[in-house]
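Z., the sequence and structure:
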Amino acid sequence: MARKTQAATGKRTTSPFERVFGAVLELAKEHGWRNVSLADIAERSGLSLAEVHAVAPSRTAIVAGLIADVDRRVLKGGAPDPEDSPRDRLFDLLMRRFDALSSQREGIVALTEGCRDDPLTFLCAAPQAMRSMALMLEMAGIPAIGIRGLLRTQGLAVVAACAFRAWLQDDSPDMAKTMAALDKGLARAESLAGWLRVGRNRMSSYRKDSEAPVRG
């Protein structure tokens, strides 16, 4: 496989994480996910194999790490408006995820296509995806604990997966197709009795907690 060193790409990044995952998406776009090895990532990122392994020791860890990175970007945006409905809060949060993915669209599409031929990696990364959906519920002020929380998490995962499939084929400049698919999915979820039913007080409490200064 023809490869480029970090110097050849002319890109500067600030952390091993950024260098590793930037290299992953570039290589997936250029050569296909199934052809990307840790050695390829090390050469492209300019890191040693040991440094790459410390960040992402396996293909599953790479996918899980990308999902977690999107979580971090969404968290930086803070809690949604507590005056909005639960459905609108989830719409806002999930669209933030697609906004984050759009900056690396070609690489994400290539990686997703590769995962279709690598179901084991996809299945092993599924727990991270479920944790992400639980986080979205909690950020929206919707409990994600207990049996009911698990059902909500699974339901939101289905909604997000359908919207993601739309995003993969969405060539509109404003992600109109993605928004339509997400809105439709959330509307169906909302129609299920009690699925998004939550008191406003919980959302207000979450917002106060998320805005409190970190001590330590």
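The radius of gyration is 19 Å. The chain is about 70% helix and 0% strand.

Let me know what you think.
H.
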